[in-house]
Structure formats: structure tokens, C-alpha cells
Amino acid sequence: MAGKPRWQSAGKREPEKENEVLEWIKEVTGETISSDLPYEDILRDGTVLCKLMNKLSPGSIPKFNQNGGQFKFMENISKFQEACKIYGVPEQDVFQTSDLWERKDVAMVTTTLFALGRTTYKHPEWQGPWLGPKPASQNRRTFTEEQLRAGEAVIGLQYGTNKGATQSGQSFGATRKILLGK
């Protein structure tokens, strides 16, 4: 990978998804986001992420650092991650601080933001905008005893059928010969 920084190789980045995330953040927060900066640099200090989370769940991050050094900004990212988990984003979908701060896996940051967008559908107090497809809801079915018994008599096609065919009379290739003493 000559000429490509190591941090860009972690995950497959999709610029169209990154743009979709930025547009969603703009709509939710009402912030103007500079298009001159790279995606990861816009999110890197964690302030945009904290503002986003506070719009989705007011007061979820009561205090975050608008300025400061590396550790203050990394603390913002950690607060955002914790707020995501409390909001309902599955832990396995939440990126690690180093994924964003050190640019190790920016694609995972996008994955987290899409997971956050999907989670908003589960919060009736949130009236939109949303990011990503609406998760499927449960579709429970109930069957009578009669319907269940009728289903036991049906042979599913996944079992296959041979309609009486056998392998008798078939021979493929030569028979096996065992040579002793060689």
C-alpha cells in the first residue's frame, strides 16, 4: 500500500454514506458543517457528536468540552459512546475511541452513526429526521392445534424426493482393486 496512510486501510469507507451521515447531523442539530474539512476531522473532537446526541436525547450529555486538548476531546467521544449505549445502540455497533481519534477505523464510526439513526425509530418521542432503514418489527403468528397437526403431514421440499429412484445398476468408473504385497 504505497503512498496510503495505514489508518485508511482499517475498514472500507463509503463516501456516499459519510455524506448521508453529515446531512443527517446537519438536519438534526441545525449546525452548519464545513464541507471543506474531511469527514473524520468534522467528527474528531466529539463536539458535533455530543450536540447530535443532546438533540436526540436532551440532556444525555449535560457537559462536554468545546475546546481543550487531546484528552478533553477524547472524553467527548467517550461520553457520546456511553450516551449511545444508554439510548439503545447495541454495544457491538459502537466504535472505539481510537477508531475516530486515531483514524483507525472511520468506517466503524459511520456504522455507529447509522446504528444510532436506526435506534431513533424505537423512540416515539423522536419525530425525525431519521437515518437508515426502519428496523423490522416483530410479526408474531398464532396457529390452532388443527393447523399445527395439518402442517406435520406435509413433507417439505427441503427434504427432497427421489420418487422411487435407487442406485442399483449404476456403476461409475472401475471397481476398486486392492493389491497386496507391493
Automatic annotation (TrEMBL):
Calponin-homology (CH) domain mapped to chain residues: 15-120
Gene Ontology MF terms in the entry: actin filament binding
Record PROSITE patterns: CALPONIN_1, CALPONIN_2, CH
GO annotations of cellular component type: actin cytoskeleton
Single Gene Ontology BP annotation: actin filament organization
Assigned protein family: Belongs to the calponin family.
Protein name listed in UniProt: Transgelin
Biological source species: Artemia franciscana (Brine shrimp)
